[in-house]
Input
Amino acid sequence: AEWAERGINVNAIGPTISYTDQARERLDDPEFRAAYLAKLPAGKFPEPKDIADAAVFLAGPRSDFIHGEMLMVDCGQTIV
Output
């Protein structure tokens, strides 16, 4: 709230696991993949670009009135 009056938005992104070099080995494991996918209502994993798109949105003018939010980019994981 203290930064909003200065025109600075403070938000965060809460991603789920996505296809990155660090996660690829785990996501390529059929058991891990099946168990994790069962937790995602969207039924698929995001690509890093999907998470980057959220960052671009939060950094742009369309989010000027969004302050103190955690934008979950987790394929619906937190709603189950």
About this structure: The radius of gyration is 15 Å.
